Amino acid sequence: SISKDTFLISVMFANNEIGTIQPIEEIGKIASENNIVFHTDAVQAIGKIPIDVKKLHIDLLSMSSHKIYGPKGVGALFVRENIKLDPILNGGGHEKGLRSGTENVPGIVGLGKACELTQERFQKDTEHMERLRNKLIKNILNTVEESYLNGHPEQRLVNNTHFRFKAIEGESLIMGLDEKGIAASTGSACSSKKLQPSHVLLAIGLDPVDAHGSLRLTLGRLNTQKEIDYVLEVLPNVINRLREISPLWKGS
Q1: Is 190 a catalytic residue?
Q2: Residue-averaged pLDDT of the chain
């Protein structure tokens, strides 16, 4: 909750793990009405959700190039005109005095081109990813016993699916899929080497056992219907094989 001392609200636009989209416009309106600076981390949202910083009352917005097929190691920060920032690095006064140091010109140009292409392809790409996402969700929930969707069923990124399966250990599931050429994760890419249950899944009320049995499958513009069909063919078999040896599965 905000207080008289609150000067900044910072909210992730969409969760990078379970894909849930936050009510950014409502939060931005609250911030604006209380004269509080509003920042959103839109790394996951750029290219997946239409973003109008004026309508959403956004003062600061951060994004990353590689999420829209641009070069890695480059990002951007939108700053509303009336917002004054102190530099984090002093020196030559580069980037309007906010970050001194030699600029990564090729990376910046690459990010600009990626933004241009993303805008041109936005409707085509988002509709394509949403179709594949919906097919994955519908078929997995209908064909795999004791399977559940993590995150909001509707207010979620068009490219995100995140499931949990009873009596399944996530790392074993990942290895089983990897053997079949399917890239997946049990959490966010940022924490892929951690064995602890996801703090995101614990925060939405899952117990550690269920959190460990989760699977994250995300999509891009280059994924195909054929690849989705392959996942839907392989995944139930891998889960059934793991459940046969699981002491937690009924009848084991």
Answers
A1: yes
A2: 93
